[in-house]
Amino acid sequence: MTKAFYSSGDVIADRRADYARMLAEQGDHAAAAELMGQALELVPDWAAGWDLVGGYHEKAGNVSNAIAAWRQLEALDDEGVFGARLKLASHNAGPAGEGTAVGYVEALFDQYAPQFEAALVGKLGYRVPDLLDAMVEEEMARLGIASFERALDLGCGTGLMGERLRAKVGHLEGVDISAAMIAETARKSIYDSLQKAELVATLNARRADADLVTAADVLIYCGALPPVLTALVPALRPGGLVAFSLEAHDGDEALFLRPSLRYAHGVAAARDALVVAGLEVLRFETAQLRFDRGAPITGILVVARKPAVEMTAANDGVDGGDVAA
Fold first, then answer.
1. Are 12 and 42 in contact (CB under 8 A)?
2. pLDDT (0 to 100) of residue 73
């Protein structure tokens, strides 16, 4: 979060929080948690303080104390900007809820925007826009698509996906939940239009006007895949393409919430969700997307197509009376 969220309004509490941060940077998370506890005795309604002490307890291995701190945080943070619900859910201490945790994701990327590209591309080896763009171009060649008339880039961020799409699209629209991200990408003049909005709400407001929809490293914050696809398919024109990425896991669960507070989707469940949504799966591949905390993150890359023609019994010229006995 930004510095504004971290001021308690009490000079002594803030000084103790600063010392706690120094201890945490030196690796002594237990001592940092103890000092933050002293700060919170002075300002018990300080939401950011409870967020910090919960994180220190977690890193010190005191999960029960972390959960107790996040329960206090959840009660204080009406807007959900600190993600207490997600943090509790990641330790099986509560439900993750439905859909995107809007307050948390918005605050996270508002804070992250100025250093987003340097961190993601420079330090974490982020590859998703390049990988998705290559897959889209290969499918364009195979399907005989010269260009797209209108594309919608969901979670456009600082325009990493948009930069790769620009030459292939007549009208390119970017949507992001973070105003700071929108401001960063607006400076690049990549998109024909930009909108600050939550993606499912954006999709629900549209009807069959996009022939390409992309979502690079976005649906990992949105929870279950079927509700997103239910909103997305009607927004596509018949024959339109969708390209997106997911983080992957090999278990039987449709999805679970990682300690990173991003969702990982089951490979089989993700493929099933595409079929149930009525999409034709053109590409469905696993790949290394980036690194996180020194470990490679494996994900799913998808390119799918909305059927060009709605198939019905009437279209096929088949009904029960035409079937020979």
1. yes
2. 96
